[in-house]
Design goal:
The chain has 239 residues and is mostly helical. The protein has a single domain, classed as Transferase(Phosphotransferase), domain 1 (Orthogonal Bundle). 39% of the residues are buried.
């Protein structure tokens, strides 16, 4: 695609890749309401607790049995994927950077599904043209993704886990784009490969022989009874 998309055209185009790519828009400066909330430490704490309870229920464990750090990592991975997925799709489809400040985003507290995400409508329209990996890294990874990682530091997650989660979210978004649009696979993989070659993702994960492997673990295996759950396919612990 080329040209300058309208907000509705852009959101409709990226939503075709799946629920992790879906976006809504709101007027800049919109305050919180009963449904849409800005991200904050209290909101994150409530989400981490809810995710932990859901993981415990899935494993047949009592509420509170899952380590808060495990629930926090799973929470971070899901939120990072929601920011990254539409941004990567916009970069691939339009050659533009979609990178709002974290404080501009609005979320709904939904558990068990991709959390609804809304961006200021002027951010959707004001997407710089000519995106490369360096610009995407500077504006997106060093922007809202670094801000999210800083907030999640309140939950005792190491930078290795946080950037490993981010690398996993990049690979997951790229995989979904390529599966939905094989004609975009080469462009998508070329862009993500360059992202993995520079900070802050340098060393967080890599693709060899067509298989992506991160260099840290998201810890979800520890949510199973006895901490003996399976690891993810891209985990450093996978064999």
């Amino acid at each position: 695609m080329s040209g300058t998309p309208t907000a509705s055209e852009l959101t409709a185009a990226v939503a075709r890749f799946g629920p992790f790519f879906a976006l809504e828009t709101h007027p800049r400066g919109m305050g919180p309401d009963e449904v849409w909330q800005p991200l904050s430490v209290p909101l994150l704490a409530a989400r981490v607790a809810a995710v932990g309870d859901r993981l415990a229920m899935a494993g047949g464990l009592p509420p509170g049995a899952v380590e808060p750090r495990v629930a926090a990592s799973v929470t971070h991975l899901g939120l990072a994927a929601r920011i990254l997925s539409p941004a990567l799709a916009v970069a691939v489809l339009y050659g533009r950077v979609l990178a709002p400040r974290l404080t501009d985003l609005r979320w709904q507290q939904v558990i068990g599904a991709p959390v609804p995400l809304s961006l200021p409508d002027d951010v959707v329209l004001d997407t710089p043209v000519g995106v490369g990996a360096d610009e995407l890294s500077r504006r997106l990874l060093d922007g809202p993704l670094r801000e999210l990682a800083a907030l999640m530091g309140e939950f005792s997650l190491s930078r290795h886990i946080l950037w490993g989660n981010t690398a996993s979210a990049v690979n997951g978004a790229a995989t979904m784009i390529a599966a939905s649009r094989p004609d975009l696979a080469q462009r998508t993989r070329a862009l993500t490969a360059r992202l993995f070659d520079q900070p802050p993702l340098l060393g967080a994960g890599a693709t060899r022989d067509g298989v992506f492997r991160r260099r840290s673990c998201c810890l979800i295996y520890r949510a199973a009874p006895g901490g003996r759950g399976p690891v993810c396919g891209d985990c450093v612990l996978a064999r």
